[in-house]
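Title: Prediction job returns without error message
Component: structure pipeline
Severity: low
Priority: P3
Assignee: unassigned

Description:
Job completed but the reporter wants confirmation the result is attached to the right record. Sequence as submitted:
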Amino acid sequence: MKAIKTENYPKCDFIPCDFNEVRHAKASVKKLMRACVPSTPLTDPEVSFHKMVEDTDWLPQIQTIMQLSGAAVDLMDLQGSSVMFSMEDGSDFTAQVVSLTQLLLDPYYRTQEGFRVLIEKEWLAFGHRFTHRCNHTAAHQGSGFAPIFLQFLDAVHQVHNQFPLSFEFNQYYLKFIAYHYCSARFRTFFFDSECERYENGTLFEDSRTKSGKIGERGDGIYKGTQIKSLWEYMDILHQKSPLFYNFHYAPIRDSVLRPYSDISTLRIWDFYINEDLRTGSTYDREVVSKATEPNEENEEGPLLPTDRRIINGCYDNIQEAQLDMYRWLLEEMNHLETDLCHFPNKWKFVWDKLESPVELQVRRASLASELIRQHGTSIHKKSTIEILTKGKEATKMQSQPHHFEPQSYVTPTYCDYCQHLLWGLVKQGYKGMKCTVCGYNCHDKCQNLVPKQCSKTRMSRESSFRQSQTSMEDVIRVTPQNTPMLSGGQPTSTYYDETWQSAQVSETRTLEGYLWKRGALLKGWKQRWFVLDSTKHQLRYYESKEDTHCKGFIDLSEIESLQPAQSLPGAPKKAVDEAFFDLKTIRRVYNFLADSKDAADEWINKIQECL
């Protein structure tokens, strides 16, 4: 955003958004593995499995991917807009969001063939650095494992849980890809670009030698290795048995998917916590076949008590030991045809010959199903509006100039632009300038170089009251024909632009604005962005309005008294004597300074209303 002149693009809206960096994903997956695969038993009763999963910050990262993908789906499907993502270098977080967006919009990418095309197009061809992120070579061992592609598969798993009838493949299909993405058994997820794959002879089928070995790599890791493509291996398994097929697949049911992205609706993927102790990994099918091959000694005779086996959920794989009805019937038909000396048909040919009752008689959805779908659509649109509104507000803040005035500094202060020391005990304009609105400090020579990103000191009383009364659920509704409309009959395509100015970013914010807070140790005054949350019963403060991580909070249940106070030493020069107020808790006494007496009275009244 800083390097782009938005005025050169009058018909485009630039929406800044928060996304997770690679280092956050690396730290999160380490904590997740400690929680799901602990090296020692948990002895502390206060540290439970769910507590450790919460501390990993894994699900919030999956939530961010789903929210941004959902916003792109709404903009493209409802408003008919073109969306372009420009985040980091484009091969990590951008690939996650763009791939999930296409999967939600196009039913083709929810088939086995389409999902393979999606991965090859957005991950392999686009240049995701698989070797670098997965530590395939000794040169990349120090960088650490980055589960970028694994997070995408986890997000698809979350969507699959909510829409199990909209995918041709099952959950085992995703687990199989995730396992061999980490196992490095196949050549599919090797190297960082198509250029490297071409140079090492793994890009095209005809680049393989007659002996089935791929070309040699310079560092010798893949030299002389017998290896196959993952897709080729999965195609062979798919032709033999319906291992990856979802028998409940209904392609005409949903064209565009809008999943819930709340943390309460997300689930820990059982791929991280389940294991098969009897056969080992169930994703190496040769190992499973040897461990589960039947006893040939008594194959022709009747069943004996020794042929029975007790299945334990902690030791055996229930899905492998007890087949579902569809797989059992298809295998039984294959055995009967073999016994009758008939050439057995492939299972897919038999399944496609069956008549689908859904195609013969399209039943109308019940009222309860329609209400659930409408509620999901409204919640999904609300999340999109919050993202757009937050981005619009951040864009406006970035274009506001600072209001600098000469300032004298009695304590060592650094220039916020060049990071050099500011000094001077008297007002000397060539030595120090300070913005009277946001508190930005700089040299006089740096004043013209400072970016125009001044933020307002506080919200107006009218706007904060209006935003606190705004409710998206009262405004948005969906017609039975799934046509997005507003309560006044206004189309949704024009609604997003209008709600950017008046919609509330977070409905739990009763009051927010800048206040000066006195430190506990050094007794220095610093300006912080405060948010009064009546739902969580907290008074949180941030470094600035754009900051998403709070520096601390005050629990409203711990407040003992709240009253106006006298002027204190060391306060800002333009402080109003009647704008001081003290907040006493069971831990300490907080000293605050507002911009005016009216602002201080407003904060006191709002906090007292929440007590």
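Comment from assignee: result matches the submitted record. The longest helix spans residues 367-398.
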